[in-house]
Specification:
By secondary structure, this protein is mainly beta. 11% of the residues lie in helices and 45% in strands. The chain contains 1 helix and 11 strands, in the order αβββββββββββ. The chain has one helix at residues 2-21, and strands at residues 46-51, 54-56, 67-72, 79-87, 93-100, 111-116, 121-127, 130-132, 140-151, 156-166, 173-183.
Length: 184
């Protein structure tokens, strides 16, 4: 009986000691949609969305960063834009951008802002001969941009977006489940 109790205590002490000394390998964050980065608010420098139902994230390198942000609270009451590109398998490059051209300083966060003709939010997408410019009047756009976090001290801006874009002569673009989490 004592030997069993001593064995039990020794086993228990060994387990506790090992668990204190063992280091866990960090696991990558789990995303709710395969192929997209998690929707975080930590300044992870990520962007992704579904483009007509297919995951789209920045990838490849043409000599410049494939994901960047411009944030300036001193211009037009606060502007920001995120630019990204990806080089696809056939060597073609797709470009994406989303931004707000004014009034970031004047809105209360979290905020949902419309993306549409005549609004201050815009989306840019270019592939091949089709270019959907941010604020061009010959492009139909309907969607929204949700800014979920704007932390000026930690320099983090995070949010979500979705938009449908149409232009004569080009296939329509439907962007859903968009998310970004950027340090500026």
């Amino acid at each position: 009986k004592n030997l069993t109790m001593k064995t039990y205590l020794l086993l228990l002490a060994t387990i506790v000691l090992c668990s204190l000394q063992c280091r866990k390998t960090p696991r990558p964050p789990v995303t709710d949609i395969p192929g997209l980065p998690p929707a975080t608010q930590t300044g992870a420098n990520t962007l992704g969305f579904l483009l007509n139902g297919q995951p789209w994230t920045p990838e490849g390198n043409n000599g410049t960063a494939n994901l960047s942000i411009d944030f300036d609270p001193g211009i037009n009451n606060g502007i920001f834009s995120i630019a990204a590109y990806r080089i696809v398998t056939n060597g073609a490059t797709e470009y994406f951008g989303i931004g707000l051209r004014d009034s970031l300083n004047l809105i209360k966060i979290p905020a949902t802002l419309p993306i549409g003709n005549g609004t201050n939010c815009g989306v840019f997408y270019s592939k091949g001969n089709c270019m959907f410019d941010y604020f061009s009047i010959d492009i139909f756009r309907d969607g929204n941009l949700k800014i979920l976090k704007l932390d000026r001290n930690s320099r983090i801006i995070s949010g979500q977006f979705s938009v449908t874009i149409f232009k004569n002569g080009c296939d329509s673009i439907k962007i859903t489940n968009g998310r970004f989490d950027m340090k500026f």
